């Protein structure tokens, strides 16, 4: 190995170390919003619940076409989870639209926290809170995490989501 090759390898190592140091430094000193684990949502548009309904329709389509219902049960947990998460995101969009219509603004740079939604919805409308918590339990927990294969449970979760979105629209 020649002296030029050794010099170029050493230069490359120094450059790599310098770039890694700069990126680590920028990550450590960059202010990042707190996260609560639900994922970012699109911007809310008050009085517009079409996106929430579209998410719900997509969830129904996923269950019908991809989860393959057979004898009262779905055959694939992966698609049940996907449908549950999709429908839950529609519920969160409707909740955000409803809260915005009520004059409550939240920092959209942070991920939404279900406890925050429960507290704010419960302070304004207890019936709406009931549908929200039922949708959370079925769509997010039972379908999204557990991937329950029961068609009846999935239908109930989608019905709760529809009821929640309808109540949000009527109360805005």
Could you give a quick summary of the protein structure above?
70% of the residues lie in helices and 2% in strands.
The tally of strands reads 2
Question: What is the average per-residue confidence, as pLDDT, rounded to a whole number?
Answer: 80
Could you tell me how far the N terminus lies from the C terminus, measured between alpha carbons in angstroms? 75 Å
Q: What is the string of helix and strand elements?
A: HHEEHHHH
Q: What's the helix count?
A: 6
Quaternary form: single chain
Low-confidence region ranges: 17-39
Structural class category: mainly alpha
What does this 3D model show about the protein?
- Residues 17-39 have low confidence and may be disordered.
- A two-stranded antiparallel sheet has the order 1-2.
- Strand 1 (69-70) and strand 2 (73-74) form a beta hairpin.
- Helix 3 (77-101) runs antiparallel to helix 5 (126-146) and helix 3 (77-101) runs parallel beside helix 6.
- With 172 residues, the protein is mainly α.
- It is globular and about 45 Å long.
- It is built from six helices and two strands, in the order H-H-E-E-H-H-H-H.
